[in-house]
Structure prediction request, 227 residues.
Amino acid sequence: KAGVTQTPRYLIKTRGQQVTLSCSPISGHRSVSWYQQTPGQGLQFLFEYFSETQRNKGNFPGRFSGRQFSNSRSEMNVSTLELGDSALYLCASSEGLAGGHNEQFFGPGTRLTVL
Amino acid sequence: SQQGEEDPQALSIQEGENATMNCSYKTSINNLQWYRQNSGRGLVHLILIRSNEREKHSGRLRVTLDTSKKSSSLLITASRAADTASYFCATAGRAAGNKLTFGGGTRVLVKP
Prediction:
């Protein structure tokens, strides 16, 4: 099976712009989770989608949003970008919910730089 | 806030030596997982240990879990240069909001 893919791999934006990141999970996986990784805050949970429904959300402002399509592919959107949004954004998929006994498979990440 | 905290933050060893890192967490869990990350790339799942298990092995990896102390350890035996990476523990459970919560990680350098 193909692994988790994320596009684009690298992105440079300026403050105030918005960005959309895409994640294609492993075939058959219904859960997609998003994480933000920065040197200062480490790996932080953004949200989880399962069967097109947001099942869990982390402590991020409303500028961060996401959705999941019927084929389980997911997108996350960040509006009104701030310098502090520069990070590696990781997507992970699993067969069941992340909070259960399910191994998560991670994509390579999207490196977002906000100037 | 992070549920798990790894110790030490960094570790440097010679090839062939064993590497041990620890993870402590705060709330009750369903399971604890260990992941490896190479140089800012995606994470790779290593082992999942359930709250009713005490020890688990996978190849050169050995994980222990002590729920009374809310701690876990990851042992890498006979380390190789390719084991150089950051290692993260992650906990899952209802008390933590049913999401996977990662610790700050341990950076391991294996010198040839």
Remarks:
- The longest strand of chain B covers residues 43-50.
